[in-house]
């Protein structure tokens, strides 16, 4: 069985979307564990409800980023996962950690990368007067929000949108594209050659795209 470990810090709606897709049989995989750096993350309840092993690793009790990352690595490795899914995991990861899981760790970022790396992406898309915004699923490399992009979900920006409205629209497309990326990886349809993405052995010139409709 293809094994996944999911890292979260908060609500875990993307985690839920992946759980749901596994339960309906759309993704052929199991989530072996959910790990949160925050004890109050609602995603932990989602894991509990779905009967998934879950752990809290509180980063504030660690002396350094490296020592936290080492403990995190150990927990993840104990499950021998095929894939590590960052789903709203609000931590900068050390280079060593990222290299250890390189090629089998993915993240979802709430912007159409390479636009708006970092934080406050919805606010920045509004301030930029963008007509489109969205989210990107990408492999994780040491450089922040910069690895090979697998799939992007595009949503319209409506006149007078608030940050909240735009964020909710982006969440809707996130819940479609993240499970899709996980599905492709779990069925072994996707691979990386250098930093180029292959789908069923054929080079993709650009990431997959989904529109909100
Ligand atoms: C998502 O918007 C994702 O793009 C970002 O963090 C948010 C997580 O939301 N990385 P949730 O915890 O999955 O609801």
How would you sum up this structure, described in words?
It is a single chain. By secondary structure, the chain is of the alpha/beta class. It folds into 2 domains: 1-101, Formyl transferase, N-terminal domain (Rossmann fold); 108-133 and 145-213, Formyl transferase, N-terminal domain (Rossmann fold). The protein contains 6 helices and 11 strands. The protein has helices at 13-23, 43-49, 65-78, 95-100, 121-127, 163-186; strands at residues 3-8, 30-36, 53-56, 83-86, 105-109, 132-139, 149-156, 190-193, 196-199, 202-203, 208-211. The strands form 2 sheets. The protein has an 8-stranded mixed sheet, covered by helices on one side. A 3-stranded antiparallel sheet has the order 8-9-10, with no helix packed on it. Strand 1, helix 1 (13-23) and strand 2 form a beta-alpha-beta unit. Helix 1 (13-23) packs parallel to helix 6. The radius of gyration is 17 Å and the shape is globular. The mean pLDDT is 97. 5-O-phosphono-beta-D-ribofuranosylamine binds at residues 8, 10-14, 43, 87-88, 108-110, 135, 174.
